[in-house]
Structure formats: structure tokens, C-alpha cells
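One thing: could you explain this record?
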Amino acid sequence: MHKMADETARRLAARLPLEFRVLYRQFLLRVIDLESLSIEADIPRFLGQFAGVLILISVLQAVGFLILSGKPHLTREALLGMAMQTELSFLAGTMLVAGLAAVATWDNIFPDRRDVMVLGPLPVGARTILAAKLLSSASLLGIGTLALNFAMGLALPLVTGVGPRLVRALAAYWFAAASASVFVYGAVLTIQGVTAALLPRRWFLRLSAILQLAAFALFLSAWVFQPGVGAVQELARAGRLGVLARWPAFWFLGLFNQISRVFPVALDSLARRAWLGMAVVLAGAGTSLLLCYVRTMKKTVEQPDLEPARAQRHWSLPLGGQLQTAIVCLSMRSLARSRQHRVVYAFFLAIAFAIAVSTLTNVITNRHMEPVTTGFLMSTLMMMCLGVAGLRSIFSLPVSLKANWVLQVTQLSPPERYIAATRRAMLILATIPVWLTAAGLALCHRPWHQALGHLLILALAGSIMTDAALIGISKIPFACSYLPGKSNVQYVFWAFAAGFTPMAMIFSRYEQTVLDNPLSYTALVAILVAAGAELWLFNRQRAKSAVLYYEELESEAITTLGIGSWLPGREEASSGRP
């Protein structure tokens, strides 16, 4: 059966034009910055890992749903409420996956300068390029949607559909899931296409960085703060109050119910919003893509990506000495201009942003000052770790070889000054912004002495995290070439999830107990100060003997054939013969 399916796929692919097949393979290899994900530029391996994680989530939740739905005393109303909550959860998860895929493939569906310069002189139509780029991006989107709903897309229709309604529920589930993912992806394409068509290219590239970070945070925040409904009556009540109309996931829940008629509640108004939203984003995405490939391709060649400043005198905010200011400005501009760096860093910042918004939402909802709880202490520590770890994970990704060579030929200062400038860049770009965000959140908590005491501890913890992240660093941020597949971004994230989270929980519980005990609090601060000073002195001593390196090279592997022992003279010598 598997061989027949492969043979059928090969025959179908052979009917496609050769130009389309070649371009599709090339664009698929570029759909994700594989080197920053550290999978050694292996697209099948990446897609397998991506699909495997989502399939595991789907199978575990489907098994739990089937076990709970098989309880003998479960009423029909309770079963439908559980099914409705499960369907809503998977629709929201599908939209999150589609949104993250759209952000991860930011600008990939639109032609860049390399596409225009290489493919422009060739006899390849713009329609072929557009179709190949669309299909390559749709492949990632389709894999994510199919893998996430793989098991639940069968389990939920089997439980809620009986007889002829089974096929209808099955079709409704997959149509609603596909529509939700297309809606999110189409909305992102529409926004990108409109801004690319209306703005000059250099302005679009600068605004694109802000839009990318905002979209990442928006999708994650919408998934975290979306309201849940536990029963059919609760859903109907929320619908009458107009709460559900604000969240697109409920639109597609209404679309699912309009097709399947599983839930005994009227959701046709939400379904109409889903149909209208689909029509708008499909028309917007199609129009923006056509405008981009007809009008914007010329702008890509004619207009430069970056232009030098017209003013003769340049001024920058002093952030220390001239060397430190230069390194910090290089780091800031690298984050602002490089899509690869923004995608990786946005992943960490979006989680920290969601934690901050969640804390602020609790205060706004309750309309009174919150006490300093263990949850608040732990969340701010996690935000600090995410900011430091995220920035450290992209330091090794070069933004331009020009920066590499410029710094090599102008290295006039000792290495410890460059390493000190790297530490200052970490503090300014990660530690201080997170601490200021935590200070703003602390204004909403009482008592004052506990909030201020925690801010002091958080500042010391941020300094310790920064120095710990810089152990072994002997290079300048964004200016060192690297070997593909060695950034290990996903390992950094999982190390944070599995290692730092339990430690932050334990430390926050202990901190909560010492905030009202002056003696214990003083001892904790003294320990943190000593640890921070020790790490700072260790890095400073190591920096004095360090040698800056700008190129990462593979270690030379010497392979021997092992034939020396077979030489006649070597054999006689080993046997002791004269």
C-alpha cells in the first residue's frame, strides 16, 4: 500500500512543470531558517520533528477525551459540553500553530532581492514563482494543521456523531480546522502585502520587524487569554453578551456547529463572522500577492533595502565608552534589521510578554492591588531568564560578514574590553528592559516593602544570569561566522522549560518566606551578591587571557589507513628478527 501511494505521488508530481518542481524544492528548503533551529539544514528531519511533536499532543489529548467520554454515568449534556470545550481548544491551538508558522516564514512568500536577481533573467513566469512559493509555505501550514488534529479529528466525530451524522461531523471538524488556519495565515499575508505595496521598500523592512514581533505576541496572547466555556448554557449566555464575537476561535466553533449541528445552541451569527472573515482574508491575500508580484518585484531591485543617512553628523546615545557604544549599537541594529534574529528572539520575548500581560490582566479584572504571591515572584524570574537566554541564543548567529571583517581589522583594544562591551549589550538589551517591566508590574502589588525587596533580588538574579550566560564567550555578538546547526536554539528553550522552571518555583517559594524576615532576607541578598561578584570576577579574569575569534571552523579529522603494520620491515621489527 505504501509503495502504491509513493508511486501515485511520483506520477502526479511528474505531470507538473519541471520549473515548478525545481522551484518548489528550493523554496521548501528556505521556508524556515533551518540553521538557526539547529537541525543541520535537514528539511525532512525538521518536518518530521515538527509533525511528531504535534501528533503526540493530539494522540495524548484524544486518548484522554475518549477515556473521559466513556464514563458510564456521564450525561449527554456533560458530554456535549466537554466535546465543545475540546473542539474550541483545538481550534485555538490550530490558529496558534498557523500564526507561528506565518511568523516563522515571514516574508518567505514574497520575492526578495535574490529571487528577483536570479530568477528575473530566466524564462520563468511570475505565476510559476508565486505558485511554488505558495505551495512551499502551504506545505508547512498543512503539516501543522494535519498533525495537530490527527487523532482528535477522528475521536471527536466518533463520540459526537452517530450514524449518518458521523460523516457530517467528520467533514465539519476538518473544514473548520482548515478554515481557521487559512484565516490566520491569510490575515498575515494581507497585512504584509498591503504594507509592502504602499510603503517604500526600506520603510517596509523597518516596519516589518515591528509587525513580526507584534504578530508573535498577539497570537500567543490570544491563545493564552481566550475565555473558556464549560457548558452549553454558559456558551449561549456568553454569546448573548457579545463576548464570543471578539475571539476568532469562537467564529470557527460556530462554523463547525453550523455544518455538523452537534451542539444544541444557536451559533449562526458566529458562523457568519467566520464566512465573512474567510472571504475578506482570501480576497486581501490574493490581491496583495498579485500586487506584490506585479508591482513590488520592480521595487525590490530599484529601491535599496537600506540607505545611508543623509545627515553628515551622526549622533548616538552614549552607552559607555566608544567601543561599548559601538558594540551595543551593532547589537541593536542587528536585531532590528535581521529577520532570522527577530524570529528566534521573538519566540522568547512573546512568552515573556504573555506572562507580563497575564499578571496585568489579573489586576485589571479584579480592580484592586494584588498581594506579592509566589506566582508573581516566579513569573518575573521566568521573564528574566527568557530575556537573557533568548538574546544569548542568537549572539552566535552572524548578521553580516562585513561586521566580521571590520571588527577584525580594527581590533586595537585588548579582548577584555570587547567582552565587557558584550556584557553591557546583554544588560541593556535584555536584563534592564525585563527588570523595568517587572518594576511596572510591581506597582500593582502590595505591600510595598515586599515588592521593592523582590525587585532588588530580581536585579541581582538578572546580573547572575547575564554573567552565567557569558561564560566561555570570546567573540563579539552578531560578528562571528558559525557552523550551521550549532546554535541549538530549541535545546536552550527545552533546558529552560525542564531545568529552570522547577528551580524558579523552589526559589520563589523560599523568597516568599524571607520577604517578611529581615535577617533571612539580608542573608539571601548577601548570598546573591557574593555569587554575582564571583561570576563577574571569574569572567573578568578569563577575559584577560582570552583570544577573540571570528571564525568557527570544524576540527580537522585525521584518518589513517592502518597499513603501517603490514609493511615487511615493520613486521620483522615487531617480531624481533634481525
User: Anything to note?
Assistant: The chain has two domains: 14-302, 322-544. The longest helix spans residues 164-198. The chain is about 75% helix and 0% strand.
